[in-house]
Design a protein that fits this description.
This is Sigma-54-dependent Fis family transcriptional regulator. The protein has 649 residues and is α/β, with parallel strands linked by helices. Helix content is 46%, strand content 18%.
Length: 649
């Protein structure tokens, strides 16, 4: 045991003339020197009040986690030392006393030197003491009698150990203080053991908090997934679901979690998933809800969950609505209608009548039959009708019935099941009807469809359900049909090559699109529209089209209709070497066409008409050449050339 009188003599020697005894403990020696450097008065009558920014109750609230963890252990310590004159004290990382437990008489004695809750017992405040020195050294320490720098503490022995957070920071100090004559090394051991228990408990709390945070992150992640999620145990009980699943199946989590998966979903495959540890990828099923008997088409993926030993613990099941999956595919593959009525060019009366009929068709959900010669733009009308209908934003799929071999058209339209035929894709494949569910299916060249295929198509239109080739299950579909043909289907019906009942199913709203030769007044509009688009695509700078060229294009009969006009114009723009399209840039076969040659021979006799048109435009624009050129639809450079040609000023 350290000698109290010797320590007192060492202390007096140091405070009077700053002489350090060589027998003084090195840790105490260094602390005394720090105390002097801090300017601590060794004869101060009481400890210092803590300097905090808020009220002490508010400060305690901030330290609630430490207090709630330490208090049970402090009370256990006090039960051991009750009646011995010892205090059990918890301090914060700054040395402020947060909680003091002890005998009434000892508490009264401590109060006399302001060793109370809310006091500051750091080295900076009172010099060497177990609390403050423990904080400075970050280690357990016992300070006895006159080892304390302040004389008011010489009657005490104090044992303290730092409390660390799970990440290693000092967050407090646990201290036991009592009469100096009761000093014992075991006291410090008790404090250290209690601190270890506090730190272990704090570590458990932190792990629990991190688990809660991680759980929150997982909850947020799972609930933001676009797939429905089911986590099921090996015995088939549902452990966890997510918000997306609740939306898909229209059941609350509490209606599913804790139940067996085959009690919630009435599908045979569900009862086998968890027990057999199966892996499934992109399996299409109609999920049957046991509670109400409703079915939802979904794409299911299953992955077994295994423990570190490789034993099955259950399964993770994800479910995607088929409609959402297909919507994504449509967005990625461009299975959408891009054309609207605003994109369809034409102002002729016969053409506007046709557009008005199509607009009326868009207001209904009836089938539409588009007829007209090849190249008239039947596909554009189909897209525009779809985009103006209630099905806009839904799938728009087109299939050319004349371009697909007859033996493959069925699988394209209706799909097929696995092993339906040699080489059939594993898992089968959805046909165009399934993929277009909710939207529009455009059957181009419907007149080329075989009679056998017409029978299958008629059945789908009548029953509004499709059966995959090789399958036995009818799949409901909601699809609007827009068909097109360049044939006279009534004549085909008379010839027996097209079914009459199918014709009437399709011909609910017939729209006949006129050939380009029947609306030649639209040719200039089409030329300007195509030129603008082709300029961008071909990176050209065509600013005007010569009146001679427009005259030639307007007089040609266009057997290939709008498609032929677009093709000719593209080739003409590619050949053009200036900013104006001229007749000499036309493809050679068009320039050698007898009708065009006849027209070219007539052109010199029209010079006077062009001259008068030029004079009239300049007069109407009051000499503004820019405005006159715009009125004539030509570039200013062309206007200047014509002025020079006709000797006009």
């Amino acid at each position: 045991m350290r000698n109290k009188e010797q320590l007192k003599a060492m202390w007096e020697k140091f405070v009077s003339n700053r002489q350090l005894d060589p027998d003084l403990d090195e840790l105490v020696r260094q602390s005394w020197l720090r105390s002097v450097a801090f300017g601590v008065d060794p004869f101060q009558p009481v400890g210092r009040k803590a300097r905090i920014q808020t009220s002490f109750p508010e400060y305690l609230q901030r330290k609630r986690g430490l207090l709630e963890t330490a208090l049970p252990l402090m009370e256990s310590l006090y039960k051991i030392v009750r009646g011995s004159g010892f205090l059990v004290i918890l301090c914060c990382e700054s040395g402020f006393l947060l909680k003091v437990i002890g005998d009434r008489d000892t508490l009264r004695e401590a109060e006399r030197i302001h060793f109370v809750e809310g006091a500051d017992w750091s080295e900076e405040a009172v010099g060497t003491n177990a609390i403050g020195t423990c904080l400075k050294l970050d280690r357990p320490i016992q300070i006895y009698a006159a080892e304390h720098f302040s004389e008011i503490c010489h009657a005490w022995t104090c044992s303290a150990a730092p409390v660390h957070s799970p990440d290693g920071r000092i967050i407090g100090v646990l201290n036991m203080s009592g009469p100096f004559e009761k000093v014992h090394p075991h006291t410090l051991g008790m404090v250290v053991s209690a601190v270890e228990a506090i730190e272990n408990h704090l570590s458990v709390i932190e792990k629990s908090r991190k688990n809660e945070i991680m759980q929150s992150y997982l909850e947020a992640t799972v609930n933001t997934l676009t797939e429905g999620v089911v986590i099921a145990a090996k015995d088939g009980k549902i452990i966890r679901t997510n918000d997306t699943l609740s939306r898909i199946v229209k059941l609350k989590p509490e209606q599913m979690e804790g139940q067996r998966i085959d009690q919630v979903f009435d599908n045979r495959v569900m009862s086998q998933i968890t027990s057999n540890a199966v892996t499934l990828t992109h399996r299409e099923i109609r999920l049957r809800i046991a509670a109400n008997g409703e079915t939802v088409p979904v794409l299911m993926n299953v992955k077994p969950i295994k423990n570190p030993d490789g034993e099955s613990m259950g399964a993770l099941i994800t479910l995607q609505e088929i409609e959402k999956v297909r919507q994504f595919v449509y967005d990625m593959t461009g299975s959408r209608a891009k054309i609207t009525f605003d994109d369809i060019v034409g102002q002729s009366a016969v053409f506007l009548d046709c557009v008005n009929e199509a607009r009326l068709a868009a207001r209904t959900d009836s089938n539409v039959l588009l007829t007209g010669e090849s190249g008239t733009g039947k596909d554009l009308f189909a897209q525009a009708i779809h985009n103006a209908s209630i099905r806009r934003g839904k799938p728009f799929l087109a299939i050319n019935c004349g371009a697909i071999p007859r033996d493959l058209l069925g699988s394209e339209l209706f799909g097929f099941v696995e092993e339906a035929f040699t080489g059939a894709k594993k898992g089968g494949n959805a046909g165009k009807f399934e993929l277009a569910d909710g939207g529009t299916l455009f059957l181009d060249e419907i007149g080329e469809m075989s009679l056998e295929m017409q029978v299958l198509l008629l059945r789908v239109l009548q029953n509004k359900e499709v059966m995959r080739i090789g399958g036995y299950k009818a799949i409901p579909v909601d699809v609007r049909i827009i068909a097109s043909t360049n044939k006279n289907l009534e004549e085909e019906v008379r010839k027996g090559t097209f079914r009459e009942d199918l014709f009437y199913r399709l011909n609910v709203i017939p729209i006949k699109i006129p050939g380009l030769r029947k609306r030649k007044e639209d040719i200039p509009l089409l030329v300007y529209s195509f030129t603008e688009k082709l300029n961008q695509r071909l990176q050209k700078r065509i600013r005007s089209v010569s009146s001679e060229l427009l005259d030639i294009l307007s007089r040609y009969d266009w057997p290939g209709n709008v498609r032929e006009l677009q093709n000719v114009l593209e080739r003409t723009i590619i050949r053009a070497d200036g900013e104006e399209l001229l007749p000499e840039f036309l493809p050679i076969e068009l320039r050698l066409n007898p009708r065009v040659i006849e027209l070219a021979n007539q052109l010199p006799f029209k010079e006077e008409i062009k001259k008068q048109a030029l004079i009239r435009s300049i007069h109407e624009s009051k000499g503004n050449y820019k405005q006159a050129a715009r009125q004539l639809g030509i570039a200013r450079s062309t206007l200047y050339r014509l002025l020079k040609k006709y000797n006009l000023k």
